[in-house]
Please model this.
Amino acid sequence: MIGVPGTFKVLAALSGMLFMGYCVYFDKKRRGDPDFKRKLHEKRHQRTFRPLKTSRSATHMSNKEIELYFQNQIQRGEGLITNGDIEGGVDHLINAILVCSQPGKLLQVLQNTLPMEVFTMMLIKMHAYESAERSSPVLMDEEGVSALE
Model:
């Protein structure tokens, strides 16, 4: 005779198997949708490289708005770094770099003006952000063709 702990284990295992079965069924149904690859491609295509903490993408801003945003981010970044909030200041400087038309020149200026530790932290954060943006996996279909094609 199965005791209460044994019954609980059986019910838990059965519930887990039912849940996994539902997940497999739902995934198969989703991937079988004729528009799945098209929607996936559109979703990935819409994902663009955006500034870290902006509500609007730089592609939807006018030149004047970008210039004001750039100046604002530089000022806020410098102010926060001066007040001791290094991470917050670095985030604002990264936002300025992301919308800058000549980021290489801006990085050279920042390298010459910022303390080496702050500049290094900024480069590390930028690298981590760019890596996260690029790390979306590429799905393959049955023929080994990328779902993005």
Observations:
- The mean pLDDT is 77.
- The two ends are 58 Å apart (CA to CA).
